[in-house]
Design brief:
The protein has 792 residues and is mainly α. Helix content is 58%, strand content 5%. The chain has 24 helices and eleven strands. A four-stranded mixed sheet has the order 6-7-9-8. The radius of gyration is 33 Å and the shape is globular. The chain starts with a strand and ends in a 12-residue tail after the last helix.
Length: 792
């Protein structure tokens, strides 16, 4: 028998014919090639042999694949030929961190149980040995006992899960692939497999108190947003990484950390009925007040001690998690080589961005009664849109590998952090260095990971439906539409929101300055410029300084958005820094940066306001000459847009003010400024009142014809269709966090919808002005006779 080596993946296969035109299909990589191609590619290395290399050269470790083996599992990528024997041995640092965390957890639980039992016994002993005189001691012990115990009974707020469980009967190819990876990594198979829409994969326990005392099976979560962008080799690497966690005994410590955090957060987080009780005791004169102060001091000492333990446990757990990630990556390297896991990592941030983009577009399509059956088709289309928008056709793709994989360049830079959805992981740069410290070569299978799903459309539809039910709370009888129908709608929306390049982005990120609108349309019978002058002014509308000023404004808007995003993401971490115009600034300096950028934005608006007025004036004069119909249409468009912009400006102001007030109140700004409850209360009430007032104004405003919005519809229901969050009562002396978050969520939604209508309205104005300009030029361009007068 002769043997033929696949030129794509170097696997040897038994040859079934000797002719040059005989075609072969490689069951390993799926490549198709001919005998002639194999001779041409690998003639120097004996591409066709009488026996595989193992028989002629026992020392050469080259992987072979028989025809029967390939037929059994044609979708399983090859593993590396040579793997260091100690590659996946846990490092001493891993073992030391696991031991330190275990000792800390043991100390915490011993201390906690000791305090709990001690306070309980003190209640009993105080009555037994002191009688009535032991009542104050018993009361103090009881309060401490309740303080320690309340963490177990605080209810956890779990939102509805996006996860959908699948079975082997539904996806046999996927489960066969999972079992094969488990065999290669030496990990136990997952107990249950779940799908979610996320760009993520995870191995997890079911978190419960019982998991501390009994073996808990591990489950596997696969995000279809991740599957949607991975190749078979990269998907195999991701699975091997998760099964590397399956084999880690230290993973069990996560259950104890979860339990410790649940108890600690229950004791440390916020005020509850027990804190209110102590406040009342402190306000009472005499012995009860003294007891209240004593217990309060005891609580303070306990809280500080427990807070120190909380930080210690979580610091050690984070440090151990970092080592666990490194080890799991090496498990992936042992079965897929050093490149697959790195190439998978390069896709994650752009895949997450594309998925978020698709989700936003589907939410907007849902506002128009359209619900797609496949979220992940739109994720792919979102990636295409982002590539065009950024003029980067290879966005989200790893760089091509050279002919010699040993010469593959490093992908990540030292400042490349972890993907946004894995913020607690090591940086991508450190992970790449870890997996390439001992480089393991392996052929890559670039076919899509979707090949592992027997029924892709069913899996995507079930997960998409779950997304709609959880995120949008759609009714159960909602009918899903074909993705092509929904994508057509999304494409039309994008077209309506994308302006001609000749406008130089002048309208992409700002409100039009319309303070002079009434003055323009009240010019009455004033004389208009000559045809030659008007033609010259029309030709210069978007020339001269416009491109430069529009670009400067766009740059300042991007800086503003980046600083605001940093303020939201940094939270209360005062050490985080942001780079602004070449310099680094801390969290406490954010407000000063925003004030500085705001000055630039105001200058931009003053400069662009001149162009806005000139554009309106030129088209006003043109419409005067074209007749009443054109003039009325132009006025109606601008009048509606002016009222819409006033609504948006009021909402922008309240949103920014409320976020700033809350940031100061929570201590996130770190500038030492303190706020009274009254200031926060008034800010929340004012924002809520402005929202109600804006919606009432919008309810009386009728729409002009816009893309996907018929003329004459009321603006109010298009911005918000449900009840506004209720008013905060002064008598409560507190503002529930849920109430504030709900108010901010409603503000965000109304502003997002209003901005979308704003950009459509701008598009409508520009289209009308283009029509007016074209009609005027056809009728009057080049005429020498025209009413005289310079006009405005």
């Amino acid at each position: 028998m002769t043997w033929l080596r696949c030129p794509h993946c170097a696997v040897f296969l038994p040859s079934q014919g000797d002719g040059d035109d005989v075609s072969f299909g490689c069951p390993s990589c799926g490549g198709v090639f001919s005998t002639a191609a194999a001779r041409h590619v690998d003639r120097a290395n004996n591409g066709i042999q009488a026996q595989p290399p193992e028989a002629s050269a026992p020392s050469a470790r080259v992987q072979t694949l028989s025809a029967s083996q390939g037929a059994r599992d044609p979708l399983y990528p090859l593993g590396p030929r040579e793997v260091p024997g100690d590659l996946t041995v846990a490092s001493p640092g891993h073992e030391l961190r696991a031991l330190l965390l275990l000792v800390t957890l043991a100390f915490f639980f011993a201390l906690y149980v000791g305090l709990l039992i001690g306070s309980g016994c003190l209640i009993f002993w105080s009555f037994r040995f002191l009688g009535v005189f032991g009542l104050p001691v018993a009361f103090v012990a009881l309060v401490v006992f309740l303080f320690l115990l309340k963490g177990f009974f605080k209810s956890e707020q779990h939102g509805k899960s996006l996860d959908v469980e699948i079975t082997e009967a539904e996806q046999p190819r996927l489960f066969a692939f999972i079992r094969r990876v488990c065999e290669d990594t030496g990990a136990p198979p997952p107990h249950r497999v779940f799908l979610s829409p996320e760009v993520n994969a995870a191995a997890f326990y079911e978190t419960s108190l019982l998991a501390m005392f009994r073996p808990t099976p591990k489950n596997l979560l696969l995000g279809l947003g991740l599957v949607n962008v991975l190749t078979l080799s990269e998907f195999k690497a991701v699975l091997a990484h998760e099964f590397g966690h399956f084999s880690q005994r230290s993973m069990k410590l996560g259950v104890y950390v979860y339990t410790a955090n649940r108890v600690l957060i229950g004791m440390l987080n916020g005020r509850d009925w027990l804190d209110d009780l102590l406040w009342r005791f402190r306000a009472v004169r005499g012995l009860p007040g003294l007891i209240g102060f004593a217990i309060w001091g005891l609580f303070f000492a306990l809280r500080q001690g427990m807070l120190g333990l909380f930080y210690c446990v979580n610091f050690l757990h984070s440090s151990l998690s970092r080592e666990m990630e490194f080890h799991a990556d090496l498990v992936a390297v042992s079965v897929t080589g050093s490149e697959a896991i790195v190439r998978g990592l390069t896709r994650l941030n752009s895949a997450e961005e594309a998925l978020s983009f698709a989700e936003r577009e589907l939410i907007r399509a849902a506002d128009h009664g359209l619900y797609s059956a496949d979220l992940f088709i739109h994720q792919r289309d979102g990636m295409d849109y982002l590539r065009k928008q950024r003029n980067d056709p290879h966005l989200g793709e790893p760089p091509p590998l050279p002919a010699d994989p040993m010469l593959a360049p490093e992908v990540f830079e030292p400042d490349d952090g972890p993907p946004s959805m894995w913020a607690d992981h090591p940086s991508n740069y450190d992970r790449e260095r870890n997996v390439k410290r001992h480089y393991v070569s392996c052929p890559l299978d670039d076919r899509s990971a979707w090949l592992l799903f027997d029924n892709r459309s069913d899996a995507c539809e079930r997960v998409t439906w779950r997304f709609y039910r959880v995120s949008l709370k759609v009714p159960r009888d909602t009918v899903l539409d074909e993705p092509e129908v929904v994508q057509k709608f999304i494409g039309e929306e994008h077209q309506a929101l994308t302006y001609d390049p000749r406008y130089h982005g002048m309208y992409d990120s700002r409100l039009i300055e319309l303070g002079y609108l009434e003055d323009v349309f009240n010019l009455g019978e004033c004389e208009v410029p000559t045809a030659a002058a008007l033609e010259q002014r029309h030709a210069a509308l978007y020339a001269g300084e416009v491109p430069k000023r529009a670009a400067a404004h766009k740059r300042h808007i991007e800086e503003w958005d980046r600083i605001v995003a940093f303020r939201r993401e940094a939270g209360q971490d005062k050490n985080k820094k942001v780079v602004f115009r070449g310099k680094q600034y801390r969290r406490r300096e954010v407000q000063r940066l925003l004030e500085f950028i705001d000055e630039d934005l105001q200058k931009d608006c003053r400069r662009l306001a001149f162009h806005d007025e000139e554009i309106l004036l030129v088209h006003y004069y043109m419409s005067r000459l074209l007749g009443q119909t054109a003039l009325v249409a132009l006025r109606e468009r601008y009048t509606f847009h002016e009222k819409l912009q006033k609504i948006l400006a009021a909402l922008f102001k309240q949103q920014s003010k409320l976020e700033w007030i809350l940031a100061i109140a929570s201590g996130a700004e770190g500038n030492g400024e303190k706020l009274e409850f009254q200031e926060v209360f008034l800010a929340v009430r004012e924002a809520r009142g402005a929202l109600v007032e804006c919606l009432e104004t919008a309810d009386n405003l009728r729409m002009p014809p816009l893309v996907h919005i018929g003329a004459g519809k009321r603006l109010g229901p298009l911005l918000w269709e449900g009840p506004v969050v209720g008013r905060v009562r002064w008598s409560r002396r507190s503002i529930p966090g849920k109430h504030v978050q709900k108010l901010l969520g409603q503000l965000d939604t109304v502003i997002d919808r209003g901005r979308r209508i704003h950009f459509k309205s701008v598009g409508g104005i520009l289209a009308l002005q283009e029509e007016i300009g074209k009609r005027w030029l056809d009728r009057f361009a080049g005429h020498k006779t025209q009413a005289t007068g310079g006009g405005r």
